[in-house]
Structure formats: C-alpha cells, structure tokens
C-alpha cells in the first residue's frame, strides 16, 4: 500500500494511492479517515493526484541518519568502514516534500546529493530485538541526505553540514508492502545518472540499524531513519533538478534554487 500526505483547498490529509487511474489518466488518492499510524478506514472519496499538492509523507520529531553504511561510498570519500554505525541527526526543519525547492545554503559552496532509502517508524519503540524490528516499521520512502561537503570537512560535528534548511527531501509517499533487503537506489541530476546501488550492499541491514538506534533512544511514530547512501555522490548547483528513485517506491524530484 502506498500512503501519501497531501493538501487540497487548505486541508491536509492522508490518502491511499490507488492503482486504478483517475479520469485524467494519472494517479488518484482514496482519502483516509484519520492517519496511518493507527487503524484507519478509507473514505471512498477519491481525488486525482494532479489536483493536490503532495507533502512530505511524515512530519518526524527526528531524523536519525546513518553515515558510511555503504563500503564503496566510505572509500570514495577516503574513509574506512566504521566498526559501529556512524549516527547523526537531521532536524525536522530540514524536511521538504516532492517538488519542493532545495535552498542552496549560504554557508557552503559544495553541496552534494545522497540518495537513500528512508525507514518510516510506525509505533513508539525502544530496545527493539532484531526479530521484532519489522514490526515497528510503517513503511519506506525515498530520501536525499543533502550534505554541505565543505562544511562537513572543516567542522568536527555534522550538524550544520547535514542539517541546513531543506536538506532532507522525503517522498513521494510511503510504501508499506516492501522488502528492503535488495532494492535499487539511484540518483540523477538533470537526467544524468550519478548514483546506482542496491540496499543489499549496505554494511548493516535495516533491522540491525533499528536495534542499534533503539538501544539508546525511543523512536516515535513518524520518525525517520536514513540508511546511508551508495557511491557516486557529487555536487549539485542552483538550477539543477535532482531525482532519487528507489525500486518499489517511486521517484522523489526537487530543484535546487538560490536561498533568499
């Protein structure tokens, strides 16, 4: 099931993306009653996706991101694969949705794209055993962990390099029925392929990341885990269109603009 968050006529809601096309030939949403983090019903009221604005699929209290979880990506930046996961946060203010603009930060002149599989948490959890890890997941979406590489290299902490406004595009929706073990992850810039990898190349699987994170902190519904990026990261510039595609989910597209 694909669940999208959207706005129409000033109202924000969730809807199930239907396989049956709308009258215009595009996708349509069946608006749900309530929200997807509890039992819900479909309303039967359908609206074409073309008539709504797709929003970030969730509003997380925190984004927990994992660095250097693909060996080739670690090596391309001159780093070793860490003995334990490198964990950092991106703030909620970094989140934007499909079609939203990435504002190039004034603190950097070397912003890079990083295509990633994002895990959306569906229930409050802590100290999750590995065999129960899938139980706390609502689904998966596409993410772009935009990084001010020059800032990352000159500052010990990654908070500014990874957490600037608009640095975490998410979307276009949540796919709930998906096995994350071996999915293609790619990124294009202006239609040119930059990244192409598979989640099977991750050093640590989704289940292991959930165990590691929840050993130290509680995850809440709508929280997001970024699972790392494959090799091929590189710069983006004002005017570029960046697209992250993940097999079984879809494509997240955003344009880079100059920050006001």
TrEMBL record:
Its EC number is 3.7.-.-. It is an enzyme of class 3 (hydrolase). SUPFAM superfamilies: FAH (SSF56529). Keywords: Hydrolase, Metal-binding. Residues 62-257 form the Fumarylacetoacetase-like C-terminal domain. InterPro entries: Fumarylacetoacetase-like_C (IPR011234), Fumarylacetoacetase_C_sf (IPR036663), Rv2993c-like_N (IPR018833). GO terms for molecular function: hydrolase activity. It holds the Pfam family Rv2993c-like_N. It comes from the Bacteria. Residues 1-57 form the Rv2993c-like N-terminal domain. PANTHER family: ACYLPYRUVASE, ACYLPYRUVASE FAHD1, MITOCHONDRIAL. This is Fumarylacetoacetate hydrolase family protein.
């Amino acid at each position: 099931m694909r669940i999208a968050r959207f706005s129409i006529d000033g109202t924000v809601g969730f809807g199930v993306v239907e396989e049956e096309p709308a009258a215009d030939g595009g996708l349509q949403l069946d608006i749900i009653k309530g929200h997807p983090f509890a039992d819900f019903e479909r309303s039967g009221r359908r609206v074409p996706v073309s008539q709504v604005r797709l929003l970030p699929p969730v509003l997380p209290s925190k984004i927990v991101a994992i660095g250097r979880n693909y060996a080739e990506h670690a090596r391309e930046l001159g780093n070793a694969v860490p003995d334990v996961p490198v964990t950092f946060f991106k703030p909620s203010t970094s989140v934007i949705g499909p079609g939203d603009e990435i504002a190039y930060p004034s603190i950097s002149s070397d912003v890079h794209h990083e295509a990633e599989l994002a895990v959306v948490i569906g229930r409050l959890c802590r100290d999750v055993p590995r065999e129960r890890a899938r139980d706390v997941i609502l689904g998966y979406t596409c993410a772009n962990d935009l990084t001010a590489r020059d800032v990352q290299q000159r500052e010990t902490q990654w908070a500014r390099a990874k957490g600037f406004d608009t640095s975490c595009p998410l979307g276009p929706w949540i796919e709930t029925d998906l096995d994350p073990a071996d999915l293609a992850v790619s990124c294009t810039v202006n239609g040119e392929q930059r990244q192409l990898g598979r989640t099977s190349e991750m050093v640590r699987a989704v289940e292991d990341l959930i165990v590691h994170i929840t050993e130290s902190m509680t995850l809440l519904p709508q929280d997001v885990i970024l699972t790392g990026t494959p090799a091929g990261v590189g710069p983006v510039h004002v005017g570029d269109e960046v697209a992250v595609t993940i097999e079984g989910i879809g494509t997240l597209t955003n344009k880079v603009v100059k920050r006001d």
